Amino acid sequence: QVQLVESGGGLVQPGGSLGLSCAPSGSRFSTSIMGWYRQVPGKQRELVATIARSGTTNYADSAKGRFAISRDKAKNTVSLQMNSLKPEDTAVYYCNVLYYNGVVYWGKGTQVTVSS
Fold it and tell me: Taking the alpha carbons of 4, 36, 55, 16 in that order, is the dihedral positive or negative?
């Protein structure tokens, strides 16, 4: 059974930094694209950033210049470093993994709250 274990998140003041990490396990297939999405109540889940196995990254405009996504192929993990956080970054952040067999999995989500 595939599981995506997320860690990080929490409460941070505006302008602060926070890191998220996700460790998928349980699949015999390699990971293709790994990423992070976020959702606030009443709104659709939206892309934050993705990273392909090649290292190619894709960021939402709101994340460009402030967030950095990375992956560790050896550990099969994906991380998101978030800097200069704003109150509007408050959301539940979800890890997303696409495997080479074409199946997509989601983590359970981790809360990020930016507030003074």
Answer: negative
Q: Work out the end-to-end distance of the chain between its first and last CA atoms, rounded to an integer number of angstroms.
A: 40
Q: What is the pLDDT along the chain (116 residues), one digit of tens a residue?
A: 899 999 999 999 999 999 999 999 888 888 899 999 999 999 999 999 999 999 999 999 999 999 999 999 888 899 999 999 999 999 999 999 999 999 999 999 999 999 99
In one-letter notation, the amino acid at residue 7 is: S
- The count of C-alpha atoms lying within 13 angstroms of the C-alpha of 63, restricted to the half-sphere facing its C-beta, is 21
Distance set, CA 19 to CA 11, 65, 92, 99 (Å): 11, 15, 13, 23
